[in-house]
Amino acid sequence: MIASGALILLFVTYQLWGTGIRTDASQKNLQNQFQKAQADAKGNTTAPKATLPGESAADTTSTNAPAASGPSDAKPATGDFPAPKPGNAIGQIKIPKIGVDFFMVEGVDLSYLAEGPGHFPGTPFPGQVGNAALAGHRTTWKAPFNRIDELVPGDKIQVTTIQGDFTYEVMAQPGSSPDAPIGNKIVSPAQTEILDQPPGQNSLTLMACNPKYSAAQRIVVVGKLVDQPAATTEKSAESKAAVNSIDQQQLINEAGSGNALSISAQPEARGPAIIFSLIAAVIWLAAWFLARRWDSWHRWQKWAVYAVALPIFLVPLFFAFENINHLLPAGY
Q1: pLDDT score of 138 more than 60
Q2: Which fold has domain 2-48+59-252?
Q3: Distance between CA 286 and CA 305 in Å, rounded?
Q4: pLDDT tens digits, residue range 141-162?
């Protein structure tokens, strides 16, 4: 019973903090992807600039480096850019007030949300005309949107994409008191209107589950674009198809099937979960048999065996927990 209790506590520790290890690695990969895309855009696109004395017209083009532009200077980059596919990096989001600094990924399937905030493929990209929408975890997987309930009207949301830097300001929710406006609203999973495209509104919608540690509701924060919007980018065929993915339908509950979430769609994790669990069990049993050579609990050799075995045991246990986590009911 003690061993079972310890394993359960270790699994909770893995979910709350261990998942962040995977997210950190994914964030580095997304960062590399985005920086490469920025470099490609800088090398392959040009934008006109004013002609200076002594310059010819041929000298009046320069590469457009979006990352170096301030929010007030954000302009659409010229030229065509490859339409991102699900799983590709699309930019970076920063919310200074609550310490958010993450690279965004295209798609809102669970596998993508484990990497960072995910962009709903059916909405415009951040910085463009319309209502761009992002989803993110409030617990586990580095919890990028853990504190969005703390945002109030006027707080800044900064977004960087290939097209430049863009600033959004959190808007007061309709119906809130003018004396104490609130920056978020709570909706049911079936209220898919949060992804609608109101005419003339350039905004960014942030969505996460509510309350924390539950998927019963959704918390929504909407920011208004204070810069000029960038040109609209064509969606890839894969992104268009991802609008109908099972995970996205569960996240916004398009089917209106209540709040129940189905079992994770990763049954392939069952085999690895069993294999890594068996490896961890064999390692610990081997340590236990070896430690039995010293009968007294006061003998240092017994504790030395467990001390050496513990880090070896934790490695397969981590992978076992990871795959077991994929088999549990979907958590957003």
Answers
A1: yes
A2: Sortase; Chain: A; (2.40.260)
A3: 10
A4: 999 999 999 999 999 999 999 9
